[in-house]
Design brief:
The chain has about 575 residues and is α/β, with parallel strands linked by helices. Helices cover about 65% and strands about 10% of the residues. It is built from 21 helices and 10 strands. Bound molecules: adenosine-5'-triphosphate. It holds the Pfam family ABC_tran.
Length: about 575
């Protein structure tokens, strides 16, 4: 409820008008049975044959009241839809912005599928609930309380009989709704798991088939699917017991009322029309109770979804933004790692005691076995994560003190699994960065050795399939490199980006980079010595540590690991 109030608060003015109309519209429903009783007991018996005008007169009043009620309800319902749509649009925007500001560690913790389903399913639940609560939240209590009040006017004794059944209904509603909240939360967790499995299956479809893992994946999917359905069933079955149970209790009450009504009619305390009105009020009250149950169900869903969304919105700011502007000071190292250690899971270091310095325009090469921590160094420099120990400095200033956005905008990072979007090649390179002109895109294309673009019929306008499926691995890489270069970064980091390029293209790319981007500092992460042998400094990494550093020539003398790698990759001739 808290979440819904919070969502509706900004619309209180419109809401006051629409809820007032909703209340008035609901009240009109309460007048009609009263007029029916009046018609049956007073108007019809006193109408003279040949003069039926009084019947028409009351009928017209009834029609007008019903019409007014209908109009007010339509207006209120439409407004409710508009308000909920607007509120949820705002909420989605808020959640989206927050997700954008989450650190990579927090995203790892939430997991991506869970973030997606919170952003979609949970906000949709809240949309339904805010609409439902506006539609029924006022109408149901008005009909319930108003129905009881009007019944009192008709016959207090019969009303007391009817009221006696209400606490039972209330109890059922309360118990089941209380059970519902944890059940709906559980459903979401299970659906998250299912989404994760499907996502992995779809993204990894080719490798799964290639390794004949389809059966295993199917079994995993079946299990998650079964669990999700089990959760759904449990929640719905619990909730589904509510209606028949309530119907039974209400019907029993109705029987009681009719029996008592018959006695009271016999004794002359009530008239026939009163009994008709009473039964109608009873139905109105019954419907109101049902609606209140639905509101409870909606609220329990909304509470579960609201809590999951609040977890995102209230997540603390992990990566605190700095305040300083970047000041270029080429006397100081462009990048300095000073005894940096870091652990992803806070249990064991993934990189340990890393120290090195490189100056503007220099090239740093990083080589090492898989999992040795190469990408982690970049993650820390980009402030996707913050160091556990030690300090990283940018022109002498600790990167924590710099504005994160400024820092990241200076770095052109090319990851191996970067996304090609289903837009044109031009849009993929320009990437909505307004300062990048056509000339920059063309220049970047040239440096990145991506001239194959011009061989395509529509050149830059050629549309890319999702994830760049209509490109080869090497073509994809070159577009990604062009994207990074077009931003004219101060630091260019192709993270294993040249692995998909053939030797010749890789060489041409490096040559062009050195010629045209002499002032750009480069960090080349590669498995091939040939890709980084001209670097000013090469780090050889193993199990999170730097086991050797120096230039290619120095390392050939000082590092056995490097020597061995060179021998395997380049043959004795080039050593
Ligand atoms: N998000 C993460 N959460 C937990 N552990 C991680 C995460 N990313 C990487 N690691 C772990 O940190 C270690 C270093 O990984 P990193 O990606 O830096 O290696 P790498 O040298 O770049 O490997 P590769 O050459 O295969 O890309 C590995 O043991 C890896 O399992």
């Amino acid at each position: 409820m808290k979440k819904i109030i919070e969502l509706l608060k900004p619309f209180w003015r419109t809401l006051t008008v629409s809820l007032t109309l909703k209340m008035l519209g609901s009240m009109t429903d309460l007048f009609l049975p009263f007029l029916i009783a009046y018609m049956i007991d007073d108007v019809i018996p006193n109408t003279l044959i040949g003069n039926v005008w009084p019947i028409y007169e009351v009928g017209i009043y009834m029609l007008l009241i019903a019409l007014a009620g209908w109009l007010m309800n339509v207006y209120a319902n439409r407004t409710a839809e508009r308000i909920s749509a607007e509120a949820i649009r705002g909420l989605r925007h808020q959640v989206f912005e927050k997700i954008e500001s989450l650190s990579s560690a927090q995203i790892d913790q939430f997991t991506r599928p869970s973030l997606i389903s919170r952003m979609t399913t949970d906000t949709y639940n809240l949309y339904n609930s805010t609409g439902g609560v506006q539609r029924l939240g006022v109408r149901a209590p008005v009909l319930l309380i108003g129905g009881i009040f009007m019944s009192f006017l008709v016959d207090p004794v019969l009303t007391l009989v009817m009221i006696a059944t209400l606490p039972f209904i209330g109890l059922v509603v309360y118990t089941i709704s209380k059970k519902g909240i944890p059940l709906y939360k559980e459903i979401q967790t299970r659906v998250d798991r299912l989404v994760r499995t499907v996502r992995e299956f779809i993204t990894g479809a080719r490798v799964i088939k290639a390794l004949s893992m389809s059966e295993h994946e199917k079994a995993r999917f079946d299990e998650d699917n079964k669990n999700a359905i089990k959760g759904e069933l449990k929640a719905h079955i619990t909730m589904a017991t509510i209606n028949p149970l309530m119907n039974t209790i209400v019907n029993l009450g109705l029987v009681l009322v009719l029996v008592f009504g018959a006695f009271r009619l016999n004794e002359g305390h009530v008239q026939k029309g009163d009994i008709t009105a009473f039964v109608t009020y009873f139905t109105i009250i019954l419907n109101a109770m049902m609606s209140i149950t639905r509101v409870f169900v909606m609220l329990s869903r909304a509470q579960a979804s609201g809590a999951r969304i609040d977890e995102i919105l209230n997540a603390p700011t992990d990566i605190k933004d700095g305040t300083l502007e970047i000041v270029k000071d080429t006397e100081k190292p462009h990048i300095a790692f000073d005894h940096v250690s870091f652990s992803y899971n806070k249990q064991k270091y993934n990189i340990e005691d890393i120290s090195f310095e490189i100056y503007e325009g220099q090239t740093l090469g990083i080589i090492g076995s898989t999992g040795s921590g190469k990408t982690t160094l970049v993650n820390l420099l980009m402030r996707f994560y913050d160091t556990t120990e030690g300090q990283i400095r940018y022109y002498g200033t600790p990167i924590q003190d710099l504005k994160v956005k400024d820092l990241r905008s200076k770095i052109g990072l090319v990851l191996q699994q970067d996304l090609i979007f289903s837009e044109s090649i031009y849009q993929n390179i320009q990437f909505n960065r307004n300062q990048i002109e056509k000339y920059d895109v063309e220049m970047a294309t040239k440096i990145a050795q991506a001239e194959f673009i011009y061989e395509r019929e529509d050149a830059y306008e050629a549309m890319m399939a999702t994830r760049g499926m209509n490109l080869s691995g090497g073509q994809k890489q070159r577009i990604l490199i062009a994207r990074a270069i077009a931003g004219k970064p101060d630091i260019l980091i192709p993270d294993d980006a040249s692995s998909a390029l053939d030797y010749q293209t890789d060489m041409k790319l490096r040559k062009k980079l050195n010629e045209t981007m002499a002032h750009t500092t480069k960090i080349i992460i590669a498995q091939r010595i040939s890709s980084l042998k001209e670097a000013d400094l090469i780090l050889v990494m193993d199990e999170g540590r730097i086991i050797a550093k120096g230039t290619h020539e120095e390392l050939l003398k000082t590092s056995d690991t490097y020597q061995l790698l060179a021998k395997h990759q380049m043959g004795g001739a080039t050593l």
